[in-house]
Design a protein that fits this description.
This protein has 600 residues and is mainly beta. The protein has a domain of 115 residues. The protein contains four helices and 29 strands. It has a 21-stranded antiparallel sheet that branches. The chain has a three-stranded mixed sheet with strand order 2-1-6, with no helix packed on it. A three-stranded antiparallel sheet has the order 5-28-27, with no helix packed on it. The longest helix is centred in the N-terminal third of the chain and has 9 residues. The chain is globular, with a radius of gyration of 28 Å.
Length: 600
């Protein structure tokens, strides 16, 4: 958890802001911190054995969270007269440097702030957007806007197990889930509204799965045949506001998804040493989406085409979908997509001995396509086609698993190669997060992990290497083929040690320590230099006590002992037609925790 203090901006008193006047999910303000956690979880399970061949497992869960938004830190703004950003337009308005009709009305506010900082009335002055909003402390910000992260979710499931014969059984899994969430944050971390994002989502999900499991030929042939059905309906309401209302998005959207699948997975032992595996899955998905995003201030008509929506003389505006309503951003109509796919999995394993096994596997992956749904600027300004195609992957892996030194040492080795086609990424185009197919990519690498235990001492170690890169870009792609893939560290290393000391009465103390390292990664497809994590190494430690019967235990631990801070994500909105800032989120500082565990 990262907790950031929200502090008052010294220059705010005596100026005007329109906080609280916009059509939004939730309200601005609230707690004077960001990142606080407040969640309640409950789980319930009931098992009923009806007979020797029939059993039921009922599960229920409930989650309620009323938390603060994740913290963000402003690095700098781009709001100069030549920067071409939304922040530039705001400053141009209040200093009388922008056309009056760009600054007027402001949607639901209904008033203009054109030239307010250069007129004769000092009482209507507004704060200009500038680097004065940057604090010198990454754990403090001047944010005053939305600050909530709320979730209510509950689910039910019933698993039925029926033994059909000695070698066959049937499993039925029925599940239902309801989810309602609201989120709001002044992502730019500024004392006036620059990027105040909020949304509400509701989802209802139902799934049904049938599995026929069999075990035959004296255990040499084992497998599963299955059917799967999934149905989801829901809605998403987007209400972000930018630059004190120059852009005011109101986006009620509805969606529904249905998925069907049939699958089979079989494993056959040809000999005591050699086994073969084969699986196949057919998937069919039908998706529907209706988008109704509007910019209540019609900013793109005002600034993008120099048109005053109140005195329209320049129609048509081809980049807007409705010439009778210049606030509309998303094209009309119910959008429908259907996808189908057949994927296979195959492999072989060979046991040199009971303690050493080598294997090879081939697997195909499939991720369905969809739409860019959170449209914050006109569709033809972001992409000619709002849909993106399915992503497909073929993965080869070869490895070795072993237990050596009478089981005291475990050593696993693996090498793999994955080829992606139509890899899906998120790009920020203008101010909209757009889903696109970047092209083709390849990830090659290896992993090694080991664990050794002698008496009360234990050691773990792991190392991984990735060679991840694009090989070909799709037509129209805006990122270069030389960019790094998202969140793909070249090197990762983990080291751990623990010691368990048992007392005379059977209770025990356990001391743990671990170190984890990852080389630099980019969280965004554009590879913004401001968002890179840098090379990161974290050290953690804990001391635990468990009673002799393992009925209760207590653990005290410290995470990030060296108090390492690094960037974990953010938004680079510094380019032309963007919002006009760069903001990031930082990793948690050093933390301590105390856990009490009790078993009945």
């Amino acid at each position: 958890m990262v907790t950031k203090k929200r502090i008052p901006f010294p220059g705010l008193p005596g100026t005007i802001t329109d906080q609280g006047m916009f059509r939004k999910v939730g309200t601005p303000g609230g707690s004077d911190t960001q990142g606080g956690e407040n969640a309640f979880n409950a789980r319930f399970k009931l098992k009923f054995i009806a007979s020797d061949t029939l059993g039921f497992l009922f599960s229920a869960d409930y989650t309620r969270a009323r938390q603060e938004a994740r913290p963000s830190t402003l690095l700098f703004t781009k709001a100069g007269p030549n920067d071409g950003t939304v922040a530039s337009a705001y400053n141009g308005c209040i200093f009388g440097q922008a056309p009056t009709f760009i600054c007027s009305n402001r949607g639901v506010v209904g008033t203009s702030f054109s030239g307010v900082n250069v007129d004769a009335d000092p009482n209507n002055n507004r704060l200009p957007i500038s680097d004065a909003f940057v604090t010198s402390d990454i754990d403090k910000s001047y944010a005053r806007g939305s600050n909530f992260d709320n979730l209510t979710s509950w689910g039910l499931s019933l698993t039925t197990n029926l033994e059909l014969s000695d070698g066959a059984s049937l499993k039925l899994i029925t599940a239902y889930r309801s989810l309602d969430s609201k989120f709001g944050s002044e992502i730019a971390a500024t004392p006036i509204i620059l990027n105040d994002a909020s949304f509400a989502m509701d989802q209802k999900q139902f799934s049904q799965e049938f599995q026929l499991n069999h075990d035959s030929l004296d255990g040499r042939l084992k497998g599963t045949l299955g059917l799967y059905y999934f149905s989801e309906t829901g809605g998403l309401l987007d209400t972000p506001v930018f630059a004190e209302g120059l852009i005011q998005i109101y986006g009620p959207n509805r969606f529904s998804n249905k998925a069907y699948a049939a699958f089979a997975h079989e494993h056959f032992d040809l000999t005591d040493k050699l086994g073969l595996t084969f699986g196949v899955r057919y998937t069919k998905e039908n998706k529907k989406f209706r988008g109704d995003q509007q910019d209540l201030n019609a900013f793109w008509a005002r600034a993008g085409a120099g048109v005053d929506p109140n005195v329209v003389t320049s129609l048509p505006l081809p980049f807007l979908p409705d010439q009778n309503d210049l606030t509309r951003l998303y094209p009309f109509g119910l959008n429908k997509l259907s996808f189908s796919n057949v994927s296979i999995k195959a492999g072989a394993e060979y046991k040199f001995s009971p303690a050493v096994m080598a294997y090879y596997s081939f697997a195909q992956g499939f991720k369905s396509g969809g739409w860019t749904t959170r449209l914050l600027s006109p569709s033809t300004l972001t992409a000619n086609d709002l849909t993106f195609r399915p992503e497909k992957a073929n993965t080869h892996e070869i490895g070795l698993k072993s237990k050596l030194l009478d089981g005291h040492l475990r050593l696993n080795l693996a090498a793999f190669s994955t080829a992606y086609k139509d890899i899906q990424i998120t790009e920020i185009i203008a101010i909209s997060p757009a889903f696109k197919n970047a092209g083709e990519a390849t990830i090659r690498g290896f992993e090694a992990e080991s664990e050794a235990r002698f008496g009360g001492f234990g050691l773990t170690a792991g190392i991984g290497y990735l060679d991840a890169h694009y090989t070909k870009m799709s037509p129209g792609a805006t990122i270069p083929v030389t960019n790094d893939l998202v969140n793909a560290p070249e090197w990762s290393v983990s080291l751990g040690a623990n010691y368990r000391h048992e007392l005379a009465n059977g209770s025990a103390f356990t001391l743990n320590g671990d170190y984890n390292y990852k080389s630099s990664t980019s969280p965004d497809a554009e590879n913004s230099p401001y968002l890179r994590s840098g090379n990161v190494g974290l050290l953690n430690g804990s001391l635990a006590f468990d009673d002799a019967d393992d009925r209760w235990g207590v653990t005290f631990g410290v995470k990030n002992i060296t108090d390492k801070r690094f960037v974990v994500g953010g938004y680079d909105q510094s380019g032309p037609n963007a919002i006009g800032y760069v903001g990031v989120g930082y990793s948690p500082p050093r933390q301590w925790y105390l856990t009490l565990r009790v078993k009945n």
